[in-house]
Please model this.
Amino acid sequence: MKIPAKGQFKFAVLDMPESARAELMKNDSTSYVGCPVGESINLGGNTYPFVVGKFKMTPKHEFEQLGDDVVLCETEAEMKESVKLLSEMTREVMVAMQCGNIGTVAFVQPGGRCIIPGFTVGQKTLPDGKKVWVVAELEMDKATGAKTLKRKKEMDDEQEARRIYQQWINESDQDKKNHFDSLAKSQIPPVPTNPFRCDTLTPVDIDDTAKARMAVLRRQWPHCFEIFDNRNAGRNFTIDECRKAFVLDWAEQGENPLAVKDKIPANADMEFWNALKRASDRAAKSKKKVLLLKVDYWIAFNWQLGWCYLSGKDLAEKVSGIAGKTFTAGQIKQRRDNLGLVAKNHSGQLPKSS
Model:
């Protein structure tokens, strides 16, 4: 069992586990660490010999606790679990993301709060001595053990209490099913509005679209994908190395680096600033190339969502409207062919009705 608490703890260097000391000494940032307390803490009839908190290394090589929020744990395994979950919440990772008609590189915190739902039913005695049955829905934070009451209901009849208990569980299961059904439905490509004019997308078409999207992202974010490829091969990169790659690719796309100034690495040196200037200069001198890459992006990421059913003329008008520059049907067909995408719209006259 673990519970959230408030308190300040001081540790001598030798009191810290070796793993915690190594984590705090290797960087200037704060870290979640767990330690056994000198004297076990007794709360609510339970004994907690371990504590997890946020610490930093001071210039005097002393461990200083930040804030007074801590997690008290009964076992070492719970302590290690809390350290892992809380640390992942603050860890930032660079990833490639795709959702709907959007694809990009972004920084995310992969370890969001792990919330565990739960339902209870039981009898309790009120201050006046009356006994009632209570049904409750709770949420527990796996990292801290904090419990949040979502709803509860009191009644006299045990059978009714157990009926409501099961009803709430069924409602929760149905909500989960509806959520996953909605996600699955969002992945289904739209059907053509005019089946006489268009063929539906095949599994091969969908696979080709996925390849086109990834090819475009690789061209937009070459420095970032170099890191992704090397990371997959087992090499580790610091967050500053990832930030440098991100900002350089951003500038190469013709975007203003100041728009992502929060991503500029903390230890940016003259070599980085010179590389950033060269990237911005290349984008300024190659505006046509920058625009065509955006055109490829629009086509690839909208293709499966309905653009595949447009005529060559309609597709060219769609792209021209977004780009603010006129493209012919032939020019857009060339971009589409380069991406390996096959139009599902038939040219020529529609078949006569019988």
